[in-house]
Amino acid sequence: MRRVLILVSAAIACAMISPARPRPASAARAQAWPPLSSNNQWVMVETDPMLNHPGGAEDVLAVCRRAKAAGYNGLMLWDANLWERQLPPGYLENAETLKAGLHDLGFTLMIEMCPRGIHVAQWSGDETMCEPRPANPHPEEKDYRYFCMAHPGVIGVWEEHIKRAEQIYHPLGWLLQYDEIRVAGIDERCRASGKSPGQLLRENVQKTVAMVRRTTPGRVIAVWSDMFDPYFNATSKHYYHVNGSLAAAAGAVDRDVLILSWNDKPVSYGYWANRGNKQIVPLCFDHDDLTINQEESLVRQAKRYGGSFVGWMYSTWKRRYDEVERYGMTFGRGVRAFEGRHDRRASAPSLGFAF
Q: Within a 10 A sphere around the Cβ of 150, how many other Cβ atoms?
């Protein structure tokens, strides 16, 4: 008995002084992200050319570290690799490195999903999941091959995408890629429904939001504003190759859906605020339409809806991250960190957001 007691005591002592085992990857995936707050300052990074090879996560983190120093606190991951059946070599290792780096920075993570283009057909092998390309396409149609809003299989493909992305990243939430849908209501399935494109879009987004809630309960759900905003694209006006009115899509999303409100008309901020939606204002877009001074004016007006306006996001379609610091200093809390390190033009005064 004495020998047994000695052995037990020794085992307890060893357990007390032994180093803790490293957490398994599943535990790392489950580590909580900072929640949505009243002071969200995110950077959107198109990561598919960065995460498609081993070691590429460091390229994403390099942008995020610059952003962190300029006052940002979150990443919007835009990664078309997640919409392909076969992930690139080294992708899972990149994802683990990226998550660890983001946690070290104190960043939150959102992921753009539910692609509106050709990826649904490529994933499923069913070409009818996309609208046919118009005979005389407008230059802005860009051959994206927009999804068919009436096809019953599209949401199932998106669910598969989200389930896999959830296993890999377990993010704070999802941005659903409903934006600038420039071809709709053309194919036979849509025409046979007897519904307008706006009605089809309304039904589609509501079913998709329900799917996301069922698949990943408790996640933040966000959408780009334009297709659901009656002061933007959700109108009866002619819109590229949309075969009919989009007006019925106005306000189709629930009031707890986060709106990325990117209209250049301030009336939109009031519209979403009056509905009770939270809003983040995307900025930059490579200055296709607005200068930074014009954006400052818009943000000042968005701030009037303090209960609704919860931050901003640096957005680029052209993978340009050269102005990350400038936007952080102008719209965020990065002025002190960068004072004296930029020319006078870049050191525009902060708007002093005090949420």
A: 22
